[in-house]
Each structure stands twice: as structure tokens, then as C-alpha cells.
UniProtKB/TrEMBL annotation:
SUPFAM superfamilies: ATPase domain of HSP90 chaperone/DNA topoisomerase II/histidine kinase, Homodimeric domain of signal transducing histidine kinase, PYP-like sensor domain (PAS domain). Its EC number is 2.7.13.3. Residues 141-362 form the Histidine kinase domain. The gene is glnL. This is histidine kinase. Keywords: ATP-binding, Kinase, Nucleotide-binding, Phosphoprotein, Transferase, Two-component regulatory system. It comes from Roseateles aquae. It catalyses: ATP + protein L-histidine = ADP + protein N-phospho-L-histidine. SMART domains: HATPase_c (SM00387), HisKA (SM00388).
Length: 362
């Protein structure tokens, strides 16, 4: 390989979200990618003057791995370790998964570090995507199965009602048929909501995320005019993107409405707060796909947090922790955002709940 090819290869490593370094078997750094610099908060020159071993809480484990790989006892070695960030002495060391592997040169080793939290998040996202696919299928079939008999049921109750005589008994029986019709209608609208995101065709146009936020903000403030503040923290440099504006408004609205509903107590106390925050994100992985640029919209509230017993399942249909909730809001939002190649996830503790919508940008 020519030197030019080699340097092009090294540059390609800068696109990765995981930290990668090329080192000599003694740990001295030959190259470190951008992700490495960012996490260590050191300039590339400083990184490249360092010895990797100095950064590990358990240096012996790394030394042993590099030694084993370089004398070909094994071609690669994986282990968990703690990375010390020298530039930030007060900070906790960062848990990472380390992979040491051979390169085509015996005097050079490749060391990859994956943040454990990042790994856990990626695993969780992939699981969510798979689950959403599976439940989507189930819902669609089930909803169709319910719809037809339900129509029959309602029609029959109506005919029955027409047959009833205007006597006292007839009026009493009428109440029963009313119940059937009413409940059938309720079920019908539930089924319609279940099917809605799959039925409507997308109307694609240029979408400005802040226009979406502003619409949602005014809708929610109209619904909760007292005791609730909706703060904005926008990165106005974010570009427009292609998408279905109305659907995205619906998706964000469901999330902000949930936050407002969770804030009931604070709303009566007058210190309820929701923040809409937009940020740019680089080199993000959504599901299995990687994007150079994305936007993040955080919906943050100071409410009690998602009840722990449903925390892992809030994006599932019919999961609700709220009296009178149908448990469809978040399912719908997730479906809409996924139709835009994006992803919603949630981080919640009492006093701070953060729903993050990530959407790829052109
Ligand atoms: N910001 C939040 N704070 C606390 N809990 C939340 C928050 N957002 C969602 N939840 C919990 O997640 C559950 C599921 O939300 P989802 O929007 O899917 O359904 P729902 O609000 O119960 O019903 P629907 O939206 O269909 O009327 C809620 O019932 C609530 O318990
Ligand atoms: Mg809801």
C-alpha cells in the first residue's frame, strides 16, 4: 500500500463514532482518530505524543493484550476497561469496551474503544426498532380483524333499535342497544387510531423543525393556559429537511402533551416547565444506519418521570400509566419519526424527563 493510500485510510477512520488508535506494541500512539480526540479532549498532536497505557486504570490488562496480539498468540483481544481522561482529572473514568487487533504490519496494532454507554444505547435502539416492526404487523392484522365484525355488530344493534316498540319496555331495551352502539363506536375510533399512521400517505415537503416546535408550543399552551411554561432553546442554524410537516407536528405534540399531562401537580403549583431544545448531531447511528448529520429535538420536563414499571415499554401500543390513557400516543410518534428514518428515545428520572427525537439531515 502506498503512503497516500495509507493516509486516506487513516482519514476514513475520522468518520467513525468509535475511538480508534494505531499504536506500537509498547502502546505509543502513531495515530488517533477524531472521536478519540473529542473524548480525551486533547489535540491530535497531544494524543499522538502519548502512550495509550497511561490512560487506562488497569494498565496491566492492556499491556498483556497488546503483547499477546503482537506476538500472534491471538489475532485480537477484547475486554472491558476504564479510560482515564487526563485532561479532566476530576472526572470519573469512562467505561469502555476495548478491542486490540493486528494490522498488516507486525509493528502496529489497532486499538478500538467503544463507550459502554454508547454500546448499550445502540443495542437498545436496535431492539426498539425490531419490536416496533413486530408490533406494527400485529396491530395492523388485529385491527383489520376487529373492524369488520364490529361494523356488523353496530349495524345489527341499530336494526334492533328500529324494531323496538315505543313502549316502556321498548325504551328500556333501547338503552341496551345504545350501550352497544356507543361502545362499538369507541372501539371503532381506537382501531382507527391504531391504523392511522399506516394508512395515510406521506405529504412530503420542506420542513423547518422550529416551525413544528412553535405550532406544538401554541397548541399545548392553548390547552394548558395556566401554570405551564414552555421554554425554547433553539439552534437556529439547523437546516430544513424533507418530511411530512403535519405528521411531525402530531409526533411532537403527542410527546409534549404527555409531558404536560405528567406535570399536572406542578401545573397546579404553577412551576411546571417544558423545554424544547434543538441541537445538531454529527455521525449518528439510527438503528443500523449511519448519518453524517442529524438534528436532535429534546422535549424536557420537570415532572415526576415515567413510572419505572412501564419505562421499558412506553413505546409499545396500549401501554399507559395514565388514567384514561389509551397508550397510543408514543407508538404513533415513534412510527411517524421512523417513517422519517429517525428515532425517539427517552431518558427519565424524577424531576427530569427527556424525550429525544433524532432526525437525519441532508
Ligand atoms: N413526560 C412524561 N413523564 C412521565 N410519564 C410519561 C411521559 N411521557 C409518557 N409517559 C408515560 O408513558 C405512557 C405512555 O404514553 P402514550 O402517549 O403512549 O400513551 P398515553 O398518554 O397513556 O395515551 P394516549 O397518548 O394514547 O392518549 C403514559 O401513559 C405515561 O405514563
Ligand atoms: Mg399520550
Amino acid at each position: 500500500m502506498s503512503d497516500k493510500d495509507a493516509s486516506a485510510n487513516l482519514q476514513a477512520l475520522d468518520m467513525l463514532a468509535t475511538m480508534v488508535a494505531l499504536v506500537r506494541p509498547d502502546g505509543s500512539c502513531l495515530f488517533a482518530n477524531t472521536a478519540f480526540e473529542t473524548v480525551m479532549q486533547l489535540s491530535r498532536r497531544a494524543v499522538e505524543r502519548s502512550n495509550l497505557i497511561d490512560w487506562f486504570a488497569d494498565a496491566a490488562r492492556l499491556r498483556e493484550a497488546m503483547e499477546g496480539v503482537s506476538r500472534n498468540a491471538y489475532s485480537s483481544s477484547r475486554f472491558d476497561a476504564l479510560l482515564r481522561r487526563v485532561s479532566r482529572p476530576g472526572e470519573e473514568p469512562l467505561p469502555v469496551h476495548v478491542i486490540v487487533s493486528q494490522t498488516d504490519r507486525p509493528d502496529q496494532l489497532l486499538v478500538e474503544l467503544i463507550e459502554s454507554a454508547q454500546q448499550a444505547r445502540q443495542d437498545r435502539e436496535e431492539r426498539t426498532l425490531d419490536q416496533v416492526q413486530a408490533t406494527k404487523e400485529l396491530i395492523r392484522n388485529l385491527a383489520h380483524e376487529i373492524k369488520n365484525p364490529l361494523g356488523g355488530l353496530r349495524g345489527a344493534a341499530q336494526l334492533l333499535q328500529l324494531e323496538l316498540q315505543p313502549t316502556e319496555l321498548g325504551a328500556e331495551l333501547c338503552e341496551y342497544t345504545e350501550v352497544i352502539i356507543h361502545e362499538a363506536d369507541r372501539l371503532q375510533s381506537l382501531v382507527d387510531r391504531l391504523l392511522a399512521p399506516h394508512r395515510k400517505a406521506q405529504v412530503v415537503g420542506d420542513v423547518n423543525i422550529h416551525e413544528v416546535c412553535e405550532r406544538v408550543r401554541s397548541l399545548v399552551l392553548a390547552e394548558f393556559p395556566k401554570g405551564l411554561k414552555v421554554l425554547r432553546d433553539y439552534d437556529i442554524s439547523l437546516p430544513d429537511f424533507r418530511g411530512d410537516r403535519e405528521q411531525l407536528i402530531q409526533a411532537v405534540l403527542n410527546i409534549v402533551q404527555n409531558a404536560a399531562q405528567a406535570l399536572q401537580v406542578r401545573i397546579s403549583d404553577g412551576d411546571a416547565q417544558i423545554t424544547l431544545r434543538t441541537r445538531v448531531a454529527r455521525q449518528v447511528t439510527i438503528g443500523k444506519q449511519r448519518w453524517r448529520l442529524a438534528l436532535e429535538l429534546h422535549v424536557e420536563d420537570n415532572g415526576p418521570g415515567v413510572p419505572p414499571e412501564i419505562r421499558d415499554r412506553i413505546f409499545y401500543p396500549l401501554v399507559s400509566g395514565r388514567d384514561g390513557g389509551s397508550g397510543l400516543g408514543l407508538t404513533l410518534s415513534q412510527t411517524i419519526v421512523q417513517q422519517h428514518q429517525g428515532m425517539i428515545d427517552c431518558d427519565s428520572e424524577p424531576g427530569r424527563t427527556d424525550f429525544r427525537i433524532t432526525l437525519p439531515l441532508p
